[in-house]
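Folding Task

Wanted — backbone structure
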Amino acid sequence: MGEAVSALATAGVIFSCLFGAALLGLLLRTRLPEHHLSSESKDVVKLGMGLLATMAALVLSLLIASAKTSHDTRRTELIYLAANVILLDRLMAHYGPDARAARDVLRTAMSGTLDQMWPPDGAPPRQRNPRAMGGEAFYDTIEALSPQGEAQRLVRAEALKIATDIGRTRWLLFEQAGGSIPLPFLALLVFWIAVIFVSFGLFAPRNTTVIVTLFVCAVSVSGALFLILEWDQPFQGFIQISSGPLRSALATLGQ
């Protein structure tokens, strides 16, 4: 839940910046000389803000699309991992009693993976380290099997391929677990939008309708950035990837 709080706090700071920028614009309107608010000045400001708004809208839409695609990709990788775990366990079951130790190691490895990616009882995330979860030990256990016939030899070869796929997917998930949005990039985007909000307040009358409209706009933009930050942290937060597929796979192991 730590990243969820962090994303929510970041969104709160962004909202404060944007709404504060709008209020600053309303304040500047009362302080600027009248010739600074002439129609010619307004036209120049509107042209500049139109360019800035176009750039900010493009960047914001690209960030939303990229974050959502990344989130969906990691969810697909997790489902693929769970399916391979079940398939590998069934292969080991067909291999025979000699593969019981390998199946036990597989269960231990997947249980460790689950606990590190989704710590129990809402505990803070542990240091993610795929090497510490028994994945390599599981591969070594399969490799150490001594097939007693062609059928077992084929099962062992296929199991090694699937074990390699599982290891590759686990490393992908752990390497992609952190955020991918650079802080300077996010700060620049917020600065652009804040400048736009200043211009909103600069030429708007001071009344309740205007203030409420600016408030709603600030909430909407900060909400969009909150979604981006949440999608960028797939294993923690309010919009995290469900651990259901891996838990279901773990429940079937050894049966």
